[in-house]
TrEMBL record:
Signal sequence annotation: 1-22
Upper lineage: Bacteria, Pseudomonadati, Bacteroidota, Flavobacteriia, Flavobacteriales
Keywords, alphabetical: Signal
Protein's UniProt name: PorT family protein
Amino acid sequence: MLKKKCKTLCFCLLSVGTGLCAQNRLKLDLDAGPIYSVLNTNRSNLTQIKDVGQYGVGVNLGAEYKIWKTLFVSSGISFHQKNFKIEGFERKEGKYTKETNNFLSFPLLVGGYILEVPQGNSGVWLKVAGGMYTDYWLTRKRTGNYMVFTELQEDGSFNETVVTEKYNFKENENQLNRFGYGLQGQAQLGYSFKSMNIYAAYNGYYGLSDINKANRDTDQETKIRSYMLSIGVSCKLN
């Protein structure tokens, strides 16, 4: 029930954010940088398996609208490459499985300026924001190192092979959930050159949705946590 309420709230917030971005006096942001992702799941019964975080690439395009004094709302669209790696398999079936996953993300944040530069002036500014996001799983590619059990060697070992495959979301044999949602926190530190800005940003993404659609055990949910550092430019539209 809580998940359904969160989904409903998030999509409603996105609709509001889209309406705000259609108005005048907008600030547009564009930034890019590395994004680090890791699976968050319970593997207490699988002692030989370890989740390892991996880096990918992220690009954020956002629009900010000031609603009152230093307060603002922002929305936009992002491309995030959320990669992760699973090392060690039970019964020595393989050494690792590495995944490359591409997502589109749609945030809606509310925040405020801690330091602000007056309109038309130059200087340092700092702002923080928080809210929710929804995302859509575009593509998934897996690369794994596996044992070839039909190739038993004289010393009792098996040959290994590396297999790369693209996941077919139309068939979706693993019942993956392409639509996700979660909480997002953001901080930006920048310098204003009157109408243009340069800035560095940090974004943290705390996934709340299970990537396995068929899972009914809340203790075995698998979620994605991501952390992104980026640099970008922004401009004000009056």
